Amino acid sequence: MEQLQQPGPQLDPAVLEMLTGSLQQLESLWQQNGGNTDTAEALLENSQKLLDPVIRAMHTVHLSGAAYIVLGLQVNIDWLQRYPAQLQGQMLLQISALLSDLVSYLDDINDLSRQQVLLDQLEALELPASPTEEQISYIGGLLSLARLQTAHSIEQEWADDSDIQLDIAADIDPQLLDMLFSELPVLSEQLSEQLQSIAERQNPEAIREAQRAAHTLKGLANMAGISGIANLTHRLEDIFELYTEAGQQPGTQLCNDLTAITDTLAMMCEAVINQSAAPENVLAMLQLLMDWHYRLRSEGLELSDSEAVPIQTQPLTAQGSDTETALSLAEEEPPQDAAESSREQTVFRVPQATLDELMRLAGEGTTLNTQLNEQITQLRSYVRLSRDRQRVLQRIMFELEQQLHEQFTMQPATDTDDNFDPLEMDRYNEMHTSMSRLQEAAADIQEVEQLMDRHIRRTGELHIIQSGVQKETLEQVLSTRLVEVKSIAARLHRVVRQACRSTGKQAELIIEGEAVRIDSHILSQLTDPLMHIIRNAVDHGLESPQQRQRQGKAEQGRIVLRFWLDQDQVRVECSDDGRGIDAERIREVAIQRGLIDTEVQLSKRDAERLILIPGFSTRDEISQLSGRGIGMDVVHQQIMRLQGVLDIRSEAGEGTTFVLSMPSSSLMIKTLLVRAGGQIYALASHGLEQTMISLDGTLSDTTEGMIFEHNGEQFPAYGLEALLGEYGTPYTAGEVHPVLLVNLGQGEKVAVMVRELIAHRELAFKQMGDYLPDLPGIPGLTILANGDTAAVIDLPARIRYKLASQHNLFNPVAVQSDLGLPKLLVVDDSLSARASLSTLLRDTGYDVSTAIDGLDAMNQMRKKRPDLVLTDLEMPRMGGMELTSTIRGREGMSDIPVLMITSRNTQRHRDEAQNSGVSVFLTKPWTENALLDHVQTLLQTTTQTA
């Protein structure tokens, strides 16, 4: 380290002549020997005597690189003297060649070709103590430093337009192009991170890491033929190399300039990826870099910036009193991070399309798993139903057996045998045999049903295990898309620096939660809104250093960006300590631009949200950062597109806070399944605060629209059908139905009314596709357990869209009468009759439900009123006649038409049916056309009457 901090070489002609003469004398001795090992002992002894003064002289004139080479020769000669048996002729010839190249180097230390020949000779050495690759690199740096510090060969460079071209070579390999597009932003961000570490003095090895990143970028740019990036990174690498070799760190001014240059480099990489024009300041930045390079080489690192600080790291060679440790000649130590790198996992590059397909398959697997669960649930219900039917069958057989026994007991036999008393002989006939066979068949069916139950239970257990594996698989698939927030940190810091340079302000960005892992799709969609919020914080929020000083604040503003995960939500908070939002100024601008009337009184919260209106800006002049009216409205739309919510909080003189929240996954979505207008919808869970029923509050119709009052608070109320533009029955006060409390952000809440709540489900989310236009508040679809599709509804986004599109924001869209399918109820104790009849009616286009007898039918009619009842005549518990009489006697049901289908066709049965109130009496066998004609006629008659 002391050698690196010595001044440049003091080339006294007398000392240099003595050095050259001594080495030439030594060279001639080795050349005369010619690699002869027999006379080598005397040669080695004489060489040791000549090398000591040469080493002292080289250190005197600060030719450190050459001195270490001679020191290495001395160590090897000493080792060969101690172990002469190891001496080989090839070793003597190599030492002779090295002395010759060293003499040539001293003749002109500014000749790069001679320096390279000397380094090549060091690499080719096969001596007992040969230098390592890292040691050769260190010596090469010392040789270059000696050349640079002489200063007489240094020339100022000038940049021109040909040095900043960003065109990609026409014959570039497609795979290399893909690698270029993926690696450029990563490497540029790494370089920016290392520059920040250098400026903050956080990492002593940051300069070396920055040099490696610049070298990699340069190589990648050269392969792709991008001269602009290659030239810029080449000059950056040269500067980093100077400080790496000198063991120093750049001062504040150079750090600031290098940071600005790397910001420009990042924009150049973005321009290459987007195939756009180079930034305007590229030429100026390249020239600034050339100027620094010239200044550092000609004036020295200490003169370039008075704040240059030596770094506290180990040099490339060990320093000690023992000459054998000077070049660590015996062994090569592994790099410091070798153990860590050996533990790193292998990383493979996977195309984006493959990941997207993997995500799709995972979603399909989850959907199929949900459908399988539904099928198992249905099988279990069928087993329970079969068990119930089995009990009914057993009861009927028992009753039949009792009746048969009573019949034979009551009637005496006609062929009594005189030899036996009637009490001594049971009398049987074929009916007894058939009854016994029927009981055996029932027992067999019960046994089969028990086997089915066991298999279904085992299938359910396997399904639970498979569901666990599927969930773990899905989590692993989702993890392939997770990236740390740290990946965008460099871009956000760059935005702050650029905004500060444009406005002349000072700001510090603090990012909390950099280790939080977020879906890459969501993070990429979130980056641009965050960048704009940060620009606004610098441009609109933070005061100038002079203003902050007068207000008692630190001259440097503070912007804190915080990321965290809250259950299934990603939350981001961006706060600054600036002046806050001037609500009165916003209101004045809104009035001037005709956005609101002068009579309208806005709350502070409502006034702050005016900045989200498209085209709104408080700036009278257009600058690089603001004044165009394109900003927060785009941010808000992007957050809404991510199914998120944007909240704004501000205090005058203290600062502004933006809070963003959105789902943490773009594949799975937590939903609430509801039914409205005869359709099932999947409501995204975000924004849903509370679920209640209408009896928990009061629904009233006012001049401003429907209002739902709950716990002393009033909320604007909307029907889900109205929000979706669907037809449905209007919601009225006193009606019982579910009510959802929805948080729109900024403390604004509304009530949404639905007809039925079904269940909470986590379902696979599917985009609408490229061929469908964006539907506000309807981001995609999901597949239900029965295989049907349901629209995913983002309620906050949909409500805001509907409110913004109406003149009266609190007047809900009028809904028409219910145009759902006619509801029919089929009542029959025969399973086959119910199945065939219900299938026919469903295929015709009716909403059909079934019941097994009259009592079951009455229970169902209390829950859902049918438009028509089709019933059998003879059924257990309650037959068709009793059912019809009950319907005619019930208030609210007496007008429901009843179509009776029976095999009884006598006039007595017809008269009894007419007296009970049956609308149509249809006898078996019936035809499909006749039945459907009767159904249509009865429904039309009911509609006309209503």
Short précis:
It contains 28 helices and 26 strands.
Topology diagram in text:
Layout (H helix, E strand, L loop, with lengths): L12 H21 L6 H21 L3 H19 L6 H19 L4 H13 L8 H18 L23 H26 L6 H19 L2 H20 L1 E2 L2 H23 L7 H18 L1 H4 L4 E2 L27 H5 L9 H59 L19 H50 L2 E3 L4 H15 L3 E6 L4 E3 H22 L3 H6 L6 E10 L2 E8 L6 H10 L11 H5 L23 H10 L3 E7 L3 E9 L4 E9 L2 E6 L3 E6 L4 E5 L2 E6 L2 E7 H5 L13 E8 L2 E6 L2 E9 L1 E2 L12 E4 L5 E5 L1 H10 L18 E5 L3 H14 L2 E5 L2 H10 L4 E5 L7 H10 L8 E5 L4 H10 L3 E4 L4 H18 L1
Parallel strand pairs: 4-6, 11-21, 15-17, 22-23, 22-24, 24-25, 25-26
Antiparallel strand pairs: 1-2, 3-5, 6-7, 7-9, 8-9, 10-11, 10-18, 12-16, 13-14, 14-15, 16-17, 19-20, 20-21
Distance between the termini: 101 Å
Shape assignment:
elongated
Q: Specify the CATH homologous superfamily of the largest domain.
A: Histidine kinase-like ATPase, C-terminal domain
Count, helices = 28
- How is the biggest beta sheet arranged? 6 strands, mixed
> Strand order of the main beta sheet, please?
18-10-11-21-20-19
Keywords: Kinase, Phosphoprotein, Transferase, Two-component regulatory system
InterPro entries: Bact_Chemotaxis_CheA, CheW-like_dom_sf, CheW-lke_dom, CheY-like_superfamily, HATPase_C_sf, HATPase_dom, His_kinase_dom, HPT_dom_sf
Enzyme class: transferase
Protein name: histidine kinase
